[in-house]
Specification:
The protein is of the alpha/beta class. It is built from seven helices and 28 strands.
Amino acid sequence: MTLPVSQMISVEEARERILQLIDRMPSYLTPIDEALGQVLANKVIAPFDIPPLDNTAMDGYAVRASDTQGADTHHPVRLKVIADLAAGYIAEQEVGENEAIRIMTGAAIPKGADAIVPFEETDEQSQKLPEKGKLQTHVNILKAANKDANIRFRGEDIREKQTVLEDGRMIRASEIGVLASIGLTKIEIFRKPVIAILSTGDEIVTPGEKRNPGQIYDANTQMLAALVKQFGGIPLVLGIAKDTVEDLTLKLRSGFNADMIVTSAGVSRGDFDVVKDVLANEGVIDFWTVRMKPGKPLAFGTFHTATGKTIPHLGLPGNPVSSMVAFELFGRPALYKMQGRSDWERPVIQAITQDKIVNTDGRRFFARCIVSKNANGTLIASLTGPQGSGILTSMSAANGLTIIPEETPHVEPGEPINVMMLDWEQKLF
C-alpha cells in the first residue's frame, strides 16, 4: 500500500520534529591546539586590548608628521635620529622637533611621534651604514607623512571585555590565532557526537567479502560513516543486520552507548522491512514518511534503554542516493545541533535549468545536478544523468540538489530553479 501524499509530512516539519528531540553534547576543556574543527561551547571575552599599545605597521622612522611637510626627493627633510627601537621594547626618549626614532615593525610608538615613515621613503638605503652598534646620526625624509600614517592603534582589532568569539563557533585556524592572541591556552568545546551506523538486509554484504548471486555490496555504511566524519561526528559502525527482528534487535542494542543511531533500509512497507517493527518494540516512532523524493520512507523515533537512556534514531531508506539525500536534509542538521552549531542551512542559489525536470507525484524533488557558469557568466544547472535512487554515480557527479516544489509538475529547459549547493566552489561565484 502506498501512503497518500496528504498523509506525508513536509521536509520542514520532519526536520523540526527531529531537531526538537536532539540535545547538545556535553562540553569539556581542551588545549586550543587540539580544538581545530570543534565547536566552541562558551563565548570568549577579551581580557585586554589587541594591540595592547599603539604600534608601527612597518619598518621605518617614528616622526612628527608636521616636521615632514613639503618633503620630496628634490627637497628632502633632514631629521636627527635619536634612537633605534626594536619590536618588544618601549622607547625611553620622546620624539621632539625635527627628530626621529628608527623603529621596527610591531614596536610601540614613541611619545611625541604621530606617524611612521617607511625606510623606502627615506635615504637610508643610499647612506653608508654606521659601524655595528653605532646609530646613524641623521636621515633624509623623501616624502611627506600624513598624521597617523602606518600606525596600528591600541584596541583596533579587539577591545578589552569585547566578545571575540560567540559560542557555537566552529574553530578554524583563524579562531585558534585569535584565542592565542589574547593569551588563552585552553577553551571549552562540545564533545563530538558518536553516531552508530547500521545497515540492514539479507541482500547486502561487506565490501571485500564473497558476494553471492543476488547480493550487492554495502555502500551505505562507509558512505554514512564518511558523512558523519565530514560533519563533525564520530562514526560507530555496527555492521549489517539480517532481516529478522532478533538479529536487528541485537545489533541495535550494541549501539546503545552512542548518541544517535542511524540505520539504512528496512523502513518502507515491504514484508521484510523490520526496522519500524523493532523501533516500535524498543522505543517510539515519531514519523516514517516525508513528502520528498528521493527519500520518502524515513523513520524517526527514539530507543529507550534498560538504563533509562533515550537515543534518537534516524531510519534512512536503503537506496544509497535516497539514504545520502535524507542524511543531508536531516542527519546533518541533527549532527550540527549536537555540536552546538546552528549554521546547518546550505546556500541556495538560482540557476537556469538545462533539462526538463518532471515532478508528477506531489513531492518535493531533490534532483542531482551540476551547477556551472556559461560564457555569459550565468549560473546553469544540468542534471547528472538518470535520477533513479540507486544510481549513486549521479550523486558523485553532483555539486547541488534542485529544489522543485511539491506543486510544480515540471520545469522546462531555460526556466530558473532553486538549487541547494552541496559544494560551494569559489570558481562558480
